[in-house]
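Much of our argument rests on the idea that a fold can be written as discrete symbols. The amino acid sequence and the backbone structure tokens for this protein are reproduced below:

___
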Amino acid sequence: MRSLLSWCQPGKRKEKRRWKEIEEEAEHLDQHPSWDAPDNSLMLQAFEWHVPADQGHWRRLRHVLPSFKAIGVDNIWIPPASKAMEPCGNGYDIYDLYDLGEFEQKGSRATKWGTKEELQSLATRAQDLGIGIYCDAVLNHKAGADYTERFPAVKVDPQERNLEISSPEEIEGWVGFNFPGRGDRYSSMKYNKNHFSGVDWDQARQRSGVYKIEGHEWAKDVARENGNYDYLMFANLDYSNAEVRNDVLNWGEWINSQLPLSGMRLDAVKHYSAGFQKEFIRRLRETVGPDYFIVGEYWKGEVKPLLDYLQQMDYKLSLFDSALVARLSSISRLEGADLRNIFNNTLVQLRPEYAVTFVANHDTQPGQSLEAPVASRFKPLAYALILLRDKGQPCVFYGDLYGLQADVKDPMTPSCKGKLPTLTQARKLYAYGLQRDYFDKPNCIGFVRYGNRRHPSGLACIMSNAGPSRKRMYVGRQHAAEQWTDILQWCSQTVVIDKKGYGEFPVSAMSVSVWVNALAEGRDSLQYHL
């Protein structure tokens, strides 16, 4: 009687009605908009923080491009290609935007990643294979100045940047950039104290702090953390200066004339003028093309600042879903966490069309300032959630594909027990069409994708963050009598779809299984190494 009454409750009746509607829609997939949807795309972050500083990374990437293509990668995000302040710098310590490893500056001609010629060779090969390249643009600051200058500045409270905690005094700051190795090639712009609003070091007194240069103000259209989060590090560019704006705008056009880029990642977008960012994006889309992809890094564990920033930017770009990573990290480390809430208050839940989803990146990996560890045993679940569902643009991390160079405990060991390529291939082969969620148990959730015209097979995914479990899920009457197997091979049994289109799909403890028709093509994973 209790069971019968429960189905009479309004919420249960509505849920049952929705399940019936999905069954009916699945019977007529060719009439649903998802039936003709384009192929899924996939982004790969093609580096991690501790890639060897051997100036060989552009060559490594060029060599493995065919392997990337084989596992379904459509676009690679490469690290900052411009000259850093030292030969081993990853490029976030940006020195010269216009030096892509071409000029003898800061102790080397090549960057940590390689020479300009090797970068161009990588880009050309990627273009031949149909793989796009997104370059990382570090536009907030400059580092490794060529000389110091003296100027008056005030010290501000690091926790409240609008609060001055000293009187104006003369300091000596690293703000002079004349690029002696490059000279006037590509740009004649030289930088000095007039082009920066703040520094973090007084050379004369050998003293650190956040110093606002007299005659300059922090940008108003930045994050409000610490009162005003314009200043981040090194010499902070002042985008109220027309010479700075013009030089960086010209660089955006210039780098696309040097490399066949498909898009850019904008670093640290909450730390510099949103108004300038809109101008920069507008220039790129006018000069390169209207479909030029832009994704910003706005690091915040809560979703509201991400939504506010997107609105401020008139939705001209996508954002990495840092709120989702915060949830993945916390849920992965909490025993018995409720999986049904895993997408609550994330960008992919609220504005999926602008969400680039990810599990880890160079900033969240162990030892980094934004470390947000996702427990290793949970990573296969996390990747299944971003790769196989119908919302968001997923990005796979190089460090999860190959392992982390600096992981002393388990060096160069891929995440997901080496099954990440299988999951990326599953995205390309099966994760299409209408989606039905079975988020009905706290520690065991599942979902079904029903396929489309070009990829009619579909899939059933089930995961548990507790003990072994199983779930009865509807995959469609057209699959009746088919035998389905787990492409991850973590469940060895076979599931036979019944005449009503349902299967009883199992999953092992603390695991994920992805079930497809055993006869479907392309179910084997690729194994490859650099």
